[in-house]
């Protein structure tokens, strides 16, 4: 048998095995290091700070947990949020993230390592990304082999699609959820393969952890039943499936109901019904198998036919009846919005207003996954070649996650792991094929097809050492099953379909190998460069602190948010209520420590609509709303001066829409557009727009800044009127350095009982119109 | 700051060894128009001084003493007897006078039929004055005085004016009242009086016409006010008097009928007493709240707790210059509010404990941030407002009932299943092991 290059032959199999396992450990350690290190750009470029919006709440909750203990956290009623409704925090969050940090915090303190809770929170996501890499390795190992596992671990470690949610400081549920997702899937595959109750229970335990950590647990809740159902339909029912699924479902469901936020949902809502249905179906199928073992096949056919129809009809009726009776909650709006992307905009604007709920743009697939997205289909096809039970899982996962990633930007996160797994399978098959030194034997064409099937070592690193075992195994395999279609040979067959069967197929010579492998390594190299670049430039911004560049190229930090929040913290009474759009609720609570009307936990649409109404109404309409809610300060974000496009004027239409949903008579979206249907803020702006509180607060005294020159809003690119709006019911209290954050104080009622507009014009010395005594009922003549 | 002032002012008053009569201080600035002689008002000013007030006189055009210096009001009360002054010194603007009210300084202002800055200021207090040069006139009862000098009955309005006063002489401009609840009309015009530009009844036709147009623009009849009190949100008081002559010695001594002196002197004293916050002054000393059977206030309450709320209210006694507990309010109400009042209940005085008002109620079955609100606003009296924020929280995880009788079927189900499982395992382990061997053998064959 000719070899493309010679391999050392004096190594014992034990040495080879030991060396390769050592190399694997080293490789995994390096991958973990890379995964953690590439997530630290945010800390290096900026500082150790909690990012964005939701993490600020998680951080605040974790602090309560660390300071006051678990039970205080469990019963925490946050009376500063959703003023004056308050928020029962324990019952409205997934506590897994905080509990994890709390455990780490307590363990470290028990070891006399006084680590600040903030640093634990900041570094939790990078730490768990290393675990994610490891669990992806385990998962992929079940799919193909260790070398594919290592590749998958490396991919997931630095893929921007996952980094975007797990940089240091991005202290969100997803930080630990992806690890839990992958590990639950790994346990499920393992349980399915071995039919072990132990792994089934492990699946359930990690499923419980996942339920406690992230609302996305519903993905597992539906993936595993879908997999099981597919296997049954494929006629692959086995006692292993029965054991794995039953132990997962029974224990997992009972455990998940212990999370207060989930409660009875697993038995009451439509989203969870698939799992219950498949559980029931499995029992029926298992029973049918039992019957089949005891009854002749013809009888069995008729029994099966009757019972399948009967049970199906019964099940559908029962489901419909229960839904009708209200025992099972119908699908929620969030669910519908997964199928109809226009649904949310029409019926639940509050969901549609979140940018991460928008459909994904095509370029972001490349941005987040680079060359993995091209290898992904190849990997899925390779799964079809072998199609063991676990390959079915990857295929289903790939199809479902691809769809969801297309619907919502946010769900790119669930797609990333399967892309990494599939791409790793494809990539490692490629490497296996081309690193394998065995050349097709021209003289013996009958065996060559199987030559390449040989498991050719674990990775490029230890491939050369495998020769001794390789050739032996190859012969054995060839002898045992000459026509077996292994993974690699399948690829080859697919790659060279034109080749005649008589002609020897395979790779000849060293040059071919070197070209392909160098090309592949080049792809890997570019992938690393791309990931590093994207991570450092796009995903490491804390969004609390903004960065821009000075003319000389140096970095200029725009720190308006913290400036404003600290102003609130230092200059306002502890119980001063701050009204802002809900995006900033968590940050105000976390950094300014002041009560807020609405925040990012958007549970009460009416309350948000109230804020929207106040923002989009004229002052005199808004004022009673502000007073009723005891609002002392109104905080808005205005980017017109420096061109920060994520400001409140750009979000304003969502406020209008959400308010319109509740008060359709008072707020109408078309009124905020010009007659031509344009959204303008300049002279031609619609009257409703010009009179709205949001417009007035945004452009109050803005024109003065330009000292008589035409004032230009740099976000909208429009000239704003020279005589800006006036405010009668609010006082400007604070405007940050770059005018990004503006804070207004709500005036108290006039001490003479006038409306504040009149009072204000009196203070400015304007003459009041003479009035006459009020008319009374007409005198009877 | 205001609290400090409240503490400081009585102390300062004592230090000056004066008989302080007002609850807010005894320094009075009188802006007196030079055309009005001080001697003509000697009785009124003398009465004030006898009560213990320190009067400072200043012409409206003088620059000193300033009424507000460094944003601090320099006097506890300001009397503006300048009905004819068209231009005031720079520091006496209508805006400055209004800001005095926000600094808890009381105002007594006199109007006249002439158009002055005060005329336009009056409209800020929801007073609607007739056009310039139209004083109140009345031809009844028949008397030897001009038609603009009118005897007016002075009923005891809101207990502020002493009862059974003889009629008082009035000459000046009437005010129609806007619908502002802060207004306290102290003296109403007689039914037969009206505002007209001169003694001749030339405007009578216009009046009749206006009366037919449902009374719009009609300055006539008993709905007009002649002396109007106004209590601002800060509890500072401002009183508008239609004519400064009411306070003159001449009107004080003028006889209403043979041998009966007018009630002007007592009336003026009563008006000044109310305006300078000598009477009808209340305050909430403290409020307390706690669970029933506890004494200390709780930081949060759980839904359905029974809570006791107590308020201590004092009234200012000008005779002794002390605050005394006061149980005389019969219609005090307490609200327990989150956006809307969830509970509105009367807050009755506790018998036997003067000044204490208390009520016990059940907290609603709704969590959120609630407020105990007292909002007591009665004409003539100080406003009593108090708002205490307390969060109402759901029960803790260990405060729910542990075992529910309704759940017994489920408990039974769980225990029976567990028992059956144990039994099954025991039977399985202890059972006969021949059969599996047999089947194994069968398979291997």
From TrEMBL, chain A:
Region (Disordered): 447-470, 762-781
Membrane topology summary: Multi-pass membrane protein
Pathway(s) of this molecule: Protein modification; protein glycosylation
InterPro entries: Oligo_trans_STT3 (IPR003674), STT3-PglB_core (IPR048999), STT3_N (IPR048307)
Catalytic activity as recorded in UniProt: a di-trans,poly-cis-dolichyl diphosphooligosaccharide + L-asparaginyl-[protein] = N(4)-(oligosaccharide-(1->4)-N-acetyl-beta-D-glucosaminyl-(1->4)-N-acetyl-beta-D-glucosaminyl)-L-asparaginyl-[protein] + a di-trans,poly-cis-dolichyl diphosphate + H(+)
Membrane-crossing segments per the record: 21-42, 88-108, 120-140, 146-163, 175-191, 197-220, 241-261, 273-291, 303-324, 365-384, 391-409
Main enzyme class: transferase
Cofactor(s) recorded in Swiss-Prot or TrEMBL: Mn(2+); Mg(2+)
GO BP, sorted A to Z: post-translational protein modification; protein N-linked glycosylation via asparagine
Compartments where located: Endoplasmic reticulum membrane
Enzyme Commission (EC) number: 2.4.99.18
Top-rank taxon, per record: Eukaryota
Biased composition (Basic residues): 766-781
Domain Oligosaccharyl transferase STT3 N-terminal stretches: 23-422
Family assignment from sequence similarity: Belongs to the STT3 family.
Protein name: Dolichyl-diphosphooligosaccharide--protein glycosyltransferase subunit STT3
From TrEMBL, chain B:
InterPro entries found in the cross-reference section: DDOST_48_kDa_subunit (IPR005013), OST48_MD (IPR055459), OST48_N (IPR055457)
Residues of the OST48 N-terminal domain: 28-275
Membrane spanning stretches: 408-430
A GO cellular component entry from the record: oligosaccharyltransferase complex
GO molecular function terms listed in the Swiss-Prot or TrEMBL record: transferase activity
Domain OST48 middle: 289-430
Signal sequence segment: 1-20
GO terms of biological process kind: protein N-linked glycosylation via asparagine
Highest taxon listed in the record's lineage: Eukaryota
Membrane-related topology note: Single-pass type I membrane protein
Pathway in which the depicted protein is active: Protein modification; protein glycosylation
Cellular compartment(s): Endoplasmic reticulum membrane; Membrane
Keywords for the protein's UniProt record, in alphabetical order: Endoplasmic reticulum, Membrane, Signal, Transferase, Transmembrane, Transmembrane helix
Pfam families: OST48_MD (PF23358), OST48_N (PF03345)
Transmembrane helix is among the record's keywords: yes
Complex formation: Component of the oligosaccharyltransferase (OST) complex.
Family: Belongs to the DDOST 48 kDa subunit family.
Function noted in UniProt: Subunit of the oligosaccharyl transferase (OST) complex that catalyzes the initial transfer of a defined glycan (Glc(3)Man(9)GlcNAc(2) in eukaryotes) from the lipid carrier dolichol-pyrophosphate to an asparagine residue within an Asn-X-Ser/Thr consensus motif in nascent polypeptide chains, the first step in protein N-glycosylation. N-glycosylation occurs cotranslationally and the complex associates with the Sec61 complex at the channel-forming translocon complex that mediates protein translocation across the endoplasmic reticulum (ER).
Protein name: Dolichyl-diphosphooligosaccharide--protein glycosyltransferase subunit WBP1
């Amino acid at each position: 048998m000719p070899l493309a290059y010679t391999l050392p032959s004096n190594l014992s199999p034990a040495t080879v095995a030991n060396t390769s396992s050592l190399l694997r450990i080293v490789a995994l350690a390096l991958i973990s290091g890379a995964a953690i290190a590439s997530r630290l750009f945010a800390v290096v470029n900026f500082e150790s700070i909690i990012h964005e919006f939701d993490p600020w709440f998680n951080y605040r909750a974790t602090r309560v947990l660390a300071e006051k203990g678990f039970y205080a956290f469990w019963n925490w009623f946050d009376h500063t949020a959703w003023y004056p409704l308050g928020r029962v925090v324990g019952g409205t969050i997934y506590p897994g993230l905080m509990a994890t940090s709390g455990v780490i915090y307590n363990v470290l303190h028990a070891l006399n390592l006084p680590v600040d809770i903030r640093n634990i929170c900041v570094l939790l996501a990078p730490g768990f990304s290393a675990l994610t890499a490891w669990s992806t390795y385990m998962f992929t190992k079940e799919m193909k082999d260790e070398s594919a596992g290592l590749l998958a671990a490396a991919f997931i470690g630095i893929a921007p699609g996952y980094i975007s949610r797990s940089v240091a400081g991005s202290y969100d549920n997803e930080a630990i959820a992806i690890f839990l997702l992958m590990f639950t899937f790994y346990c499920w595959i393992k349980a399915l393969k071995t039919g072990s109750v132990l792994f089934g229970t492990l699946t359930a335990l990690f499923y419980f952890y996942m339920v406690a950590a992230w609302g996305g647990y519903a993905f597992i809740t539906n993936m595993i039943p879908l997999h099981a159902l597919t296997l049954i339909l494929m006629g692959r029912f086995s006692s292993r499936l029965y054991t794995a699924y039953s132990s997962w479902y029974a224990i997992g469901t009972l455990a998940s109901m212990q999370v207060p936020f989930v409660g009875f949902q697993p038995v009451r809502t439509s989203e969870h019904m698939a799992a219950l249905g498949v559980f029931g179906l499995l029992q029926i199928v298992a029973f049918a198998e039992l019957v089949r073992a005891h009854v002749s096949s013809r009888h069995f056919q008729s029994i099966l036919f009757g019972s399948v129809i009967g049970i199906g009809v019964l099940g559908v009726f029962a489901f419909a009846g229960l839904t009708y009776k209200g025992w099972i909650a119908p699908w929620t709006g969030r669910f519908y919005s997964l199928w109809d992307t226009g649904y949310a905009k029409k019926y639940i604007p509050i969901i549609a207003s979140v940018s991460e709920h928008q459909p994904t743009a095509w370029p972001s697939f490349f941005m987040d996954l680079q060359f993995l997205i091209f290898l992904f289909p190849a990997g899925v096809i390779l799964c079809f070649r072998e199609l063991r039970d676990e390959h079915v899982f990857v295929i289903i996962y790939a199809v479902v996650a691809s769809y969801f990633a297309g619907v919502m930007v946010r769900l790119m996160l669930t797609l990333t792991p399967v892309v990494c797994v599939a791409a790793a399978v494809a990539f490692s098959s490629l490497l296996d094929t081309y690193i394998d030194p065995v050349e097709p034997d021209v003289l013996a064409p009958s065996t060559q097809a199987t030559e390449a099937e040989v498991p050719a070592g674990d990775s490029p690193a230890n491939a050369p050492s495998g020769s001794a075992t390789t050739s032996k195994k190859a012969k054995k395999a060839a002898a045992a099953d000459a026509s077996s279609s292994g993974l690699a040979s399948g690829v080859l067959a697919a790659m060279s379909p034109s080749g005649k069967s008589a002609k020897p197929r395979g790779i000849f010579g060293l040059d071919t190998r070197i070209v392909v492998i160098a090309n592949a390594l080049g792809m890997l190299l570019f992938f690393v460069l791309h990931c590093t670049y994207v991570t450092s430039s796009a995903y490491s911004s804390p969004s609390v602190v903004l960065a821009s560049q000075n003319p000389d190229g140096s970095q200029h930090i725009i720190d308006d948010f913290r400036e404003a929040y600290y102003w609130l913290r230092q200059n306002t009474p502890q119980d001063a209520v701050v009204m802002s759009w809900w995006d900033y609720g968590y940050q105000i609570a976390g950094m300014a420590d002041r009560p807020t009307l609405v925040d990012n936990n958007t549970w009460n649409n009416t309350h948000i609509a109230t804020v929207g109404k106040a923002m989009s109404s004229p002052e005199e309409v808004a004022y009673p709303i502000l007073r009723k809610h005891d609002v002392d300060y109104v905080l808005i974000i205005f980017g017109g001066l420096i061109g920060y496009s994520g400001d409140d004027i750009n979000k304003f239409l969502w406020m209008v829409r959400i308010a319109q949903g509740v008060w359709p008579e008072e707020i109408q979206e078309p009124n905020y557009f010009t007659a031509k249907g344009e959204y303008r803020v300049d002279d031609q702006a619609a009257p409703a727009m010009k009179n709205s509180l949001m417009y007035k607060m945004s452009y109050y005294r803005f024109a003065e800044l330009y000292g008589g020159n035409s004032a230009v809003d740099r976000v909208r690119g429009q000239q704003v009127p020279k005589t800006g709006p006036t405010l009668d019911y609010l006082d400007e209290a604070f405007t940050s350095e770059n005018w990004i954050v503006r804070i207004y104080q709500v005036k108290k009622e006039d001490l003479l009982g006038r409306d504040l507009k009149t009072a204000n014009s009196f203070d400015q010395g304007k003459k009041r119109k003479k009035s006459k005594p009020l008319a009374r009922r007409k005198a009877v003549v | 700051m205001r609290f400090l002032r409240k503490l400081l002012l009585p102390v300062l008053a004592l230090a000056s060894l004066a008989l302080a009569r007002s609850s807010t201080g005894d320094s009075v600035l009188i802006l007196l128009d030079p055309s009005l002689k001080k001697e003509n008002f000697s009785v009124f000013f003398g009465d004030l001084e006898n009560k213990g007030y320190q009067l400072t006189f200043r012409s409206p055009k003088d620059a000193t003493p300033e009424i507000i210096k460094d944003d601090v009001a320099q006097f506890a009360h300001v009397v503006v007897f300048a009905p004819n002054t068209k231009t005031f010194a720079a520091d006496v603007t209508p805006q400055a006078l209004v800001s005095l009210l926000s600094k808890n300084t009381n105002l007594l202002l006199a109007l006249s039929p002439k158009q002055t800055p005060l005329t336009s200021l009056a409209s800020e207090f929801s007073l609607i004055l007739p056009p310039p040069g139209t004083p109140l006139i009345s031809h009844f009862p028949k008397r030897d005085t001009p038609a603009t000098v009118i005897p007016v009955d002075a009923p005891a309005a809101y207990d502020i004016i002493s009862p059974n006063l003889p009629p008082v002489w009035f000459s000046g401009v009437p005010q129609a009242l806007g619908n502002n609840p802060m207004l306290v009309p102290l003296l109403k015009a007689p039914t037969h009086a009206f505002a007209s530009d001169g003694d001749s009844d030339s405007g009578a036709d216009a009046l009749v016409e206006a009366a037919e147009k449902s009374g719009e623009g009609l300055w006539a009849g008993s709905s007009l006010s002649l002396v109007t009190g106004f209590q601002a949100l800060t509890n500072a008081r401002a009183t508008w008097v239609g004519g400064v002559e009411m306070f003159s010695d001449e009107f004080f001594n003028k006889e209403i009928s043979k041998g009966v002196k007018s009630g002007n002197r007592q009336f003026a004293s009563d008006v000044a007493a109310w305006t300078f916050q000598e009477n009808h002054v209340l305050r909430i000393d403290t409020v307390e709240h706690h669970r029933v059977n506890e004494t200390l206030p709780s930081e949060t309450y759980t839904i359905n707790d029974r809570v006791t709320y107590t308020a201590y209210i004092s009234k200012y006694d000008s005779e002794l210059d002390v605050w005394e507990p006061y149980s005389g309010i019969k219609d005090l109400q307490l609200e327990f509010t989150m956006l809307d009042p969830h509970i509105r209940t009367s807050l009755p005085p506790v018998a036997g404990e003067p000044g204490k008002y208390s009520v016990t109620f059940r907290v609603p079955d709704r969590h959120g941030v609630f407020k105990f609100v007292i909002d007591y606003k009665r004409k003539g009296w100080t406003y009593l407002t108090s708002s205490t924020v307390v969060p109402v929280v759901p029960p803790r995880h260990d405060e729910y009932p542990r075992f529910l009788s309704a759940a017994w079927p489920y408990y039974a189900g769980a225990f029976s299943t567990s028992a059956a499982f144990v039994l099954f395992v025991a039977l399985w382990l202890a059972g006969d092991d021949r059969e599996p061997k047999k089947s194994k053998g069968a398979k291997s064959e």
